[in-house]
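Title: Prediction job returns without error message
Component: structure pipeline
Severity: low
Priority: P3
Assignee: unassigned

Description:
Job completed but the reporter wants confirmation the result is attached to the right record. Sequence as submitted:
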Amino acid sequence: MITLSVVVPIRDGERFIADALTSLSRNARGDFEFIIVNDGSVDATGDIIDDFIGELPGLVVIRNPAPVGLADARNTGLSAATGRYVTYMDGDDWLAPGYLARLVEAIDGLGCDFVRVDHVQVEGRKRVVHRAPLARRGTVLAPRDAILPANVRTMVDYPYAWAGVYRRSLGDLLHFPGSLHTAEDRPWIWRLHREAATFAVVSLAGVFYRRMVSGSLTQVGDERQLHFFDAFELVFKDLEQEFLPKAARNFCALLAHHLEIGDRLTPALRARFGERGAQMVRALPPELVAEAVSRMSVEREATLRALVPDLPPSPHVRVRRDREES
């Protein structure tokens, strides 16, 4: 019987995949399986993975002849999983020794549908622990109760699939929207928190997440960045009224962030991005947009107002700016 399935999608990751697989070998156990989905790599990634066959117990390799994208690569690995639990790791990240055993111990002990954890963000030699937003630790809670309030960072603002472990019996809730090649984790985390029954957060930081890696989707400036809007259309679809202020604030804040780093896009793509953004902002209830921008920094508010000049006045702008200037 397999206790844990670890799904690792990778595409053209020859620089990092050996580190990732070595870290898995330091977490190996007889009841763990490691499903590596080689998503159409054309570099030496496949050869490096093959070097670990026979060296990494529980290794399962799936090769996609052509790339299908991160979401569908994860879904492919999930379909092959046989464990009672499943977790994810990106192929350019790595795990602390013994981390997976502690992850299983946490969900076994709590008996909930899924457990979320902290992580370590890596930029060069810099290491910074990023904590999951929920302060209450080691207690089983209702996932829906961790979506609000709207005006603070909550668990739906922490979408990383690899920062947790999930019962495979959750079924479709663990699948990602295959149509998306970026921001696929946004509708995924919202659906998980809206529809799963129980979850918990524990103080465990064993995932080392490489940030600002060239070639990663967060750094690529092609048409896949437009999937940000498709992702949030899925978030807003059939969303309960009580959660709409949170989703609107979430969307507006992330849109402003993307606009701030818009120089990575070509002028034509930047124009399309702006048009799509303005269209979606105008489709939201004006009072929710006004509330959302009132909580932003002055700089981000200016960025969003430059995109949508007819935004309604912010109800809290005077109080907020006075506080910022003091």
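Comment from assignee: result matches the submitted record. Residues 138 and 286 are 39 Å apart (CA to CA).
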